[in-house]
Amino acid sequence: MRLLISKILALGLGVTLTVSGCDKQSGGKPQGEAPQSSQDAPKEGLSGTVDRTHKGEDMPKVVFEDMAGTPKTLADFKGKPLLVNIWATWCGPCIAEMPTLERLAAQRAGKLQVIAISQDMKGRPVVAEWWNKQGFKTLTTYVDAKADLGFALGGGSLPTTILYDAEGKEVWRMVGGAEWDAPAQLALIDAAL
User: Fold this and answer.
1) Where residue 5 falls among pLDDT bands split at 50, 70, 90?
2) How far apart are CA 84 and CA 39, in angstroms?
3) pTM of the prediction?
4) How far is the C-alpha of 127 from the C-alpha of 24, rounded, in Å?
């Protein structure tokens, strides 16, 4: 009986750790405390999975905000392909992939729009504090403190990155982190442009 209970407890712990993903902060910090820079985030966890089951779906009509508090929707970006990254300052894989998103945005400027939309519940002040320390010059962030966009996309897993075509139709999404300037991700993106 003890052996059975031990196995059940071990299985439960394994499932909890697997499901928690970005529910814990890298470096042992509690959720809500951001790493000081993307260099502080561990590089493991950048092995996202491509999902094409939503191909052809329209962009959600959810409202989020730019860093000045101006309401935006994804439709504001129609006209060019758009890569939307859903992230949070407390998510280790999100932070680890940010520099690669910055490089991608610079490399594909003019062909592809790349934006990051934070799901931080504490809103713009927390996001702005972290973002301003990074020195990103091309990548732009937005805030969705209620996580409405994440829920509209049927997720909750962070990071999630969605590619939309110029008409606002989903091409694919990547659930989990990725090195966005690596050859495999560049080929995935370029095949859709």
Assistant:
1) very low
2) 22
3) 0.78
4) 17
CA angle 93, 124, 136 (to 5 degrees): 55
Query: What proportion of the chain, given as a percentage, has pLDDT over 70?
Result: 76
For residues 138 and 17, give the distance between their C-alpha atoms in angstroms, rounded to a whole number. 35
pLDDT at 6 over 80: no
Out of 3.40.30.10, 3.10.180.10, 3.40.50.970, 2.40.50.140, select the CATH number for domain 35-192.
Answer: 3.40.30.10
- Rounded Cα distance between 180 and 99, Å, is 9
- The string of pLDDT tens digits covering residues 98-151 is 999 999 999 999 999 999 999 999 999 999 999 999 999 999 999 999 999 999
